[in-house]
Amino acid sequence: MTTRQDLTLAYTPGIAEVCKLIQQDPDAVNTHTFCRNNLAVISNGTAVLGLGNIGTKAGYPVMEGKAMLFKRFANIDAVPIMVHATDIEEFVTTVEQIADSFGAINLEDIAAPACFEIEERLKKSLSIPIMHDDQHGTAVVVLAALTNALQLVPSHTKSSRVVIVGSGSAGIAIAKLLMVGGFTNIVLVDSKGIISSDRSDLNDFKQTLASQTNPEKLSGSLADAVKGASIFIGVSKAGLLTPEMVTSMAPDSIVVAMANPVPEIMPDLAHQAGAALVATGRSDFANQVNNALAFPGIFRGAIDTRSPITEKMKLAAVQAIVEYHAKDLSREMLLPSIMDEAVHKAVADKVREAARA
Amino acid sequence: MTTRQDLTLAYTPGIAEVCKLIQQDPDAVNTHTFCRNNLAVISNGTAVLGLGNIGTKAGYPVMEGKAMLFKRFANIDAVPIMVHATDIEEFVTTVEQIADSFGAINLEDIAAPACFEIEERLKKSLSIPIMHDDQHGTAVVVLAALTNALQLVPSHTKSSRVVIVGSGSAGIAIAKLLMVGGFTNIVLVDSKGIISSDRSDLNDFKQTLASQTNPEKLSGSLADAVKGASIFIGVSKAGLLTPEMVTSMAPDSIVVAMANPVPEIMPDLAHQAGAALVATGRSDFANQVNNALAFPGIFRGAIDTRSPITEKMKLAAVQAIVEYHAKDLSREMLLPSIMDEAVHKAVADKVREAARA
User: CB-based contacts of B272: which residues, under 8 Å, 6+ apart?
Assistant: First the structure.
């Protein structure tokens, strides 16, 4: 905008022509403004990183960081929107009222179980791409990691027991996507122990999962769950998995300990206790499992096709990551690097394809 | 963000340190994130340009254009937020719930009289700088224009009659600021005629103004108001001011016809009918009067000092524009060019000074 003429076009009176066009054809907002590529990272700050319910101001930096990743890896213009509402009804209403401002919504760091109903309701009422990344971004990367891990340690299969510790938004979403991906023996563990149909203290979401998981009808503690298990997935707390528990697992176990910043078990301890393959959420250890590998490409693909984000698109993202990394796969490099720009492009391409199909 | 180390700082785990800092000291959100310099251009699309109530999608381009001006002239990062609510209560609640996401709020294109209560309530409940630009940005530039005009045509003074046609948000705000600026004989005209105390069809805001304006107790039509008046200010509709009306004004009248895109009278007709000085809202005629001369600098100054926007800061902006333009002032160049970057800096400087004082 350097000349008076530029100003006349970008602002009054030129802008009135664009308004009139959109008035006649609301869809033109996607082709004649930057709205479509403008994504809101929306949170109420109730479950921020490992810090918990720290609110809308203290949660802001995470949304800001996420906005930078969107721009850096998917050229999406993102803006943090902190919503000062913990009540589901209030939160949903506020987001619905501002939704015309954006081409997509990334829900972030919202506590379970509220996050499930919030995402479900917004996906129903709004037509733009919406995804709660703590659930689905994480689940996509974990499924990609396990797909690769089974190639590296072929003594385990999709019918081997997978124990997921932590039954918040990430744990539940991981369980669901692993089932979609063909895993048949999943055991969820929360702070009270193994989630099974005979427990009377479960919320609706956990109750549903209790009936779909735990085919061996296990009950008891985390130690009971991991005994003999092939795969451990942690989205819980620092130090929860002891070396003794790892030793009690099936030989050559796979340990994905994603608690942040301190994992459920440190990699060296897990290896000493018998694990064949260890991954964490951290960038300073080998095998980082982080949703930043998935969400930029998923949203890029969804925005480009203006499609709601479906299970098929998530599986396409998994496939993209796995295929992209096939020739570089090793026990020290389970997944591609987040900094590898080409993997984000590969994810976006596959997601676009799936959306169009 | 080019290395893994950058990622570690900008995102997890580094970002957790910033969250913890803000948790202890909420004010740190202003120094350790980009929140402070992030401004929302918020509208419900009920009074967009001259187009009226065109809604949240069709109104989007105006907010987008405004965001560009904020960046271009004041280095403020702005984002359009369209709120799908015409009810005052709903609108205010939604804005309050997302306010922690922003360092300032520019209210835009909200119909009168709702805009008055909305701005008043938000200024009370939120501590960040907030301004409804259609009111105050316009008023600041009009007061600067008239201050300059009286220097060029000294036969008129601040006690000469000023007729303001159009009693929406802009007209009412102009009347108020002109009074603060020392003008003593203002007559407002709406679609029904002159606003006077004997009218029974006025809303609260117009009623209050009726008692503060029109000292000559005029009544009747626009033609009655302008007869013998020194200054005409139009924020109404194309062609409302006829050449005959201009001829009926005091000799060497001042005509500021800001209806967009077609003014209340075309400059050549106004001159032929006897006007000494003519200004419009258009960039393709001499003497453009446009709020883009004021709002970038006003918000820059307010954000830098984290101050609510006060009458004194608005008057400082007027003074900045007038002083900046003193040596270039002429009947063909009543105000500085919007494209002149130095004027925005001058406004910001004076506004900062006023805020600190």
Answer: B243
